[in-house]
Amino acid sequence: MYNEINLDKIDINSTLPTEEPFRQYYFIAKGREWVKTFQQKNGHLPKFCITTFGCQMNAHDSEKLKGILGMMGCEETEDEAADIVIYNTCTVRENANQKLYGHLGHLKNLKAKNPDMIVCLCGCMMQEPHVTELIREKYKYVDIVFGTHNIYKLAELMHIYFATSKQTIEILEQSAETVEALPQKRKYNFKSGVNIMYGCNNFCTYCIVPYVRGRERSRRPEDIMDEIRMLAKSGVKEVMLLGQNVNSYGKIYDYSDGKIVHIPHEERTTFPELLKMVCGVPGIERIRFMTSHPKDLSDELIHVMASEDKICKHIHLPVQAGSSRILEKMNRRYTKEHYLGLVDKIRSTIPDISITTDIMVGFPGETEEDFEETMDLVERVRYDQAFTFIYSKRTGTPAASMENQIDADVVKRRFGRLLERVNIIAGEQLKRYEGKIKDVLVEDVNAQDDTFVTGRTGENVTVHFKGSKELIGQTVAVNLKECKGFYFIGEQLQ
Ligand code: 5AD
Ligand code: SF4
User: Fold this and answer.
1) Segment 81-106, tens digit of pLDDT
2) Which whole number is the average pLDDT over 15-37?
3) How far is CA 32 from CA 50, 146, 155, 184, 399, in A?
4) Does the beta carbon of 318 lie inside 6 Å of ligand 1?
5) What is the number of other CB atoms lying within 10 angstroms of the CB of residue 106?
6) Residue 208 has pLDDT above 80, yes or no
7) Number of H-type helices and E-type strands within the chain
8) Ligand 1: which atom is nearest the Cα of residue 320?
9) Which ligand has an atom closest to residue 317 CA?
10) pLDDT-derived band at 131, boundaries 50, 70, 90
11) Which is deepest, 122, 308, 384, 409, by most CB within 10 Å?
12) Residue 349: which pLDDT band, with cuts at 50, 70 and 90?
C-alpha cells in the first residue's frame, strides 16, 4: 500500500474518500494548501514543536504526527515558540498529569505573543473525561484535542479547526480500525519502532492503560511485514516491536456485549512466529521488542530468542513486586516463584542475556514483609537494569479504592532502599561485559566530546568510543574496555 500513495495525484476538489488511509492523505493534501497560504502570508513555512511524555508507544505516535505534518510541508523545531505546538501526554502516573498543567501555563504566554499559534493536546491523558472537560472549560486557548485512537487523524482535525475556528475536540472510546500505511518521521534513520499491537486487556489493578488505550488488537502480520520491509529498504537496521503485552500477539477476542472473550483459533500467528518472520527480512540486523508480560511468556519465545542471531539478547520483563500476595492483588496472574522460574529458564537457555524490569513500591496494603520479598527478588534475579516507581493512585482503577493506601514517608524510605540496591546490582552486572567484544550500532556523536561516538550493544548497553559522525548508523565491533558505572568506554576493532 505504501507504493499507492502520491500526494501530487490527489485532487482535493474531488469527493472525499471514505476509506483509510486515503481519506487522511486527502486531508494531508488539503493541508499542503494551507501551508502554501501560510508561507505567502508569513514568509516562512509553519514550524511545529512536539513534546512527548511517557513511553515508547507515545514516542512512536509522535513520529506519526511528525510524518503527517512533514508531509504537509511544515518544519520541525525544538523551540516551543512555534506555529503548531503539540503535547503528546501520558497519564500512567499522577506526576505526568501535573507536569502538563505546568506547561500549559507557559503555552498561554506564548500564544498571547502569537495568537495564530495552534495548540494541540493528544495522547493518553486526553482519554480521561475529567481532563477533556477541564480543557473545554478552563483552557480555551487549546485549539485541537484528540486521544489515542485517532492520532492518525491530525490532518483531518486541523481541517475541521480551520473550517470552524472553534476548539476542536474528538475523543473516541475505541479504535474503529487499525489504519495502515500512514507517514512517519523517524528520529533516527537506522532504527525504528513498529507497533505490532495496540491496547491492553490485562487490567492490572493499579494501571490506567487499559482504560486509555482500549482493548487489545493485533495488527495483521502481513501489514507489519510490509512496514518492516519498507523500513529496511529505507535504511533501517534495527526494529523495536511495540505492544503493551507482545506475548499475546495475534490473539483474537470477541468484544461484543462489553465482555472480553478470547476466541482460540489455530491459524493465528504467534509472537515467536512473527519474530521469525521479521528475522527473514534482508537488511534488518537487530530486532528488539517491548513489553513482555511474565504470565504469557512461552518456552517457544525463549527458544526463538536463543536460536535467532538477529534477536537482541535483552528482555524487559516487568515484575512489579516480589510478594505473591501483592502480585495477586495487582492481578498480575503469576507468583514470585513462577517469575523466578522463568528467569532461570531464560538464563539457562540464553546465558549472557540482559534482563531488565519495572518495579513498583507502595501498592495499597504493602507491608514491610511484602517489601522485603521485593528486595529478596531483586537480590536473586540481579537485574541489569530496573525502572523503579512509587505507586500512584489512578482514579477509576480498582487499586484506587483499595484500603490501606500506604503512608508517603514509608513509601519514600522503601523506594530509597530499593533504588540503592538496584543501582549497585546493575553496576556489578554491567562489569561482566568488561573486556568483551560486542557489535555496537552507533547512534550519535557524543554530546560531551565530539571526538567520541555513542552506540548500543544488542544487550542495550551504552558504549562511548573514539570515532566520528560517519559511523552513525553503522554496526561496528568494539572492545568494551572500561566499565564506568552505567556505561562503557570502548575501543573500535580495526
Ligand atoms: N503507579 C506507579 N507506577 C505505575 N506503572 C503503571 N501504573 C502505575 C501506577 N499507577 C508502572 C509499571 C509499568 C510501568 C510502565 O509503569 O511499573 O510497568
Ligand atoms: Fe498496565 Fe498491566 Fe496492561 Fe502493562 S499489562 S499496560 S501494567 S494493565
Assistant:
1) 999 999 999 999 998 888 898 899 99
2) 94
3) 19, 21, 10, 16, 47
4) yes
5) 10
6) yes
7) 13, 21
8) 17
9) 1
10) very high
11) 122
12) very high
- Judged by DSSP in three states, 107 sits in helix
Q: What is the pTM of this model?
A: 0.94
Nearest residue (CA) to ligand 2, atom 1: 207
The answer to whether residue 176 scores a pLDDT higher than 80 is no
Angle ∠(465,458,306) on CA atoms, nearest 5: 150
> What's the confidence (pLDDT) of residue 274?
98
Find where cell 505534518 sits.
Answer: 69
Element (H, E) at 27: helix 22-42
What count of residues does the chain have? 494
**CB-CB contact of 290 with 316 (8 Å):** yes
Segment 227-252 shows an average pLDDT of 96
Residue nearest to atom 2 of ligand 1 (CA): 391
End-to-end CA distance of the chain: 43
Q: Is 367 helix (H, G, I), strand (E, B) or coil?
A: coil
For residue 5, pLDDT over 90 is answered with: no
- Half-sphere exposure at residue 335, Cβ-oriented, CA atoms within 13 angstroms: 5
Helical packing angle, 408-430 and 368-381, nearest 10°: 10
184 CB under 6 A from ligand 2? no
CA distances from 307 to 46, 228, 300, 311, 393 (A): 49, 21, 11, 9, 42
Give the number of the atom of ligand 1 that is nearest the alpha carbon of residue 392.
1
Record the cell numbers describing residue 294, joined without a space: 511474565
- The CB of 60 under 6 Å from ligand 2? The reply is no
255: three-class secondary structure by DSSP: coil
- Rg (Cα) of the chain, in Å, rounded? 24
Please give the distance, rounded to the nearest whole angstrom, from the Cα atom of residue 388 to the centre of ligand 2: 15
- How far CA 410 is from CA of 377, 386, 416, in Å, comes to 20, 21, 10
